[in-house]
């Protein structure tokens, strides 16, 4: 074996050791929260959340059901049904992106359709080099991180989190008084190489901040990020450009149209009901990926009540190396990230002595107090 081959093998073995160490650390960290309820007396400088009465979203009415008469339609690249699996600590998710069927779809790294109920959840865990978008559809989710940020997502709320160079946070379903579960979506988005070491940041987007377009009597669109039927969303939610729409139809045969930039990858995930796209029927929990051969997506509801998200993101021309929640572009940079996390440096200074207060659970009463602080 040549010296160069020996060095290459040595580097691969070192990376494997780091990966195994990382998995052991995360497993130990999660198990410790299940076994013990720690009295965390650490003083945290929390970012206050403005207390406001939850209001309905602003409603716009759009008379024309067509966005463009000359729209070229994208064809289907791939599709399949997301299968339920276990994730985190006792949580159940239907993962579509981030599986063997679709490892990644640049800039998207993972999509989970989650259903969780205490004591299940996602206690303290790290991220690097990516952004996460959490869309809470039912129940309540509390979050807290080692920068001092905290908050609560109510039904219809979203959170845009940029991990950047490093963050450790906890995402825990609130123990609701009526005993119901929490449901929603979480999307992982890659960051451009030049932004992977940016400072972490959060943006909680309340339901009232996302405009709804009443296209006609049978079609409503929540414009979370982007522009749909002439209505723009709140701007500057994420560093990587992402367009995110929630379509709601109430009658079989309702036609929808959505334009996207040519340099965006686009997919649909069906929450309820079924759709007809390119003369093919797709049922609940189906994910449909599109080619970049058109200016938009067109389809028709195939059931009386159908809900789906239609999401697109700017294609990133870069390599992706991913170990769990750590995302980089090459082995050298990934080894540096592991070292930073192991030694608590370069963004992870608080990683090994910070414990969230919500990791062992949070009641609905405490969550509502948290929201008012």
Task: Throw out a few tags for this protein.
transmembrane helix, membrane, transmembrane, 3 helices, globular, 7-stranded antiparallel beta sheet, single chain, mainly beta, Jelly Rolls, 373 residues, RmlC_Cupin_sf, Pirin_N_dom, 8-stranded mixed beta sheet
What report would you give on this structure?
The protein is mainly beta and 373 residues long. The chain has helices at 3-35, 331-343, 364-372, and strands at 59-61, 76-81, 83-87, 91-95, 108-116, 122-127, 130-138, 141-145, 150-153, 158-162, 167-173, 182-190, 201-205, 212-216, 219-225, 227-228, 231-232, 242-249, 255-259, 264-272, 275-277, 280-282, 286-290, 296-301, 306-314, 321-323, 326-328. The chain has a domain at 59-314: Sandwich (Jelly Rolls). The strands form six sheets. The chain has an eight-stranded mixed β-sheet with strand order 1-14-15-18-25-20-23-2, with no helix packed on it. A seven-stranded antiparallel β-sheet has the order 3-4-5-12-7-10-13, with no helix packed on it. A hairpin with a 4-residue loop joins strand 8 (141-145) and strand 9 (150-153). The radius of gyration is 21 Å and the shape is globular.
